[in-house]
Amino acid sequence: MNILFASESEDPQRWLPRLKEHLPGDGFFLEPGAQIEVALVAKPPAGTFENSPNLKFVQSLWMGVEQLLADPALPRGVPIARLVDPGMVLAMSETVLARVLEWHRHHPHYRSQQRERLWKPLPQFMAADRRIGLLGLGELGSDAARKLVALGFSVRGWGRRPKRLDGVECSTELPHVLAQSDVVVCLLPLTAATRGLLSAQVFAQMPEGACLINVARGGHVVEKDLLAALDSGRVSHAYLDVFETEPLPADHPFWAHPKVTLTPHVAALTEPRTSIPKIVANLERVRRGERPEGLVDPAAGY
Question: Beta strands 57-60 and 80-81: pairing type?
Answer without folding.
Answer: parallel
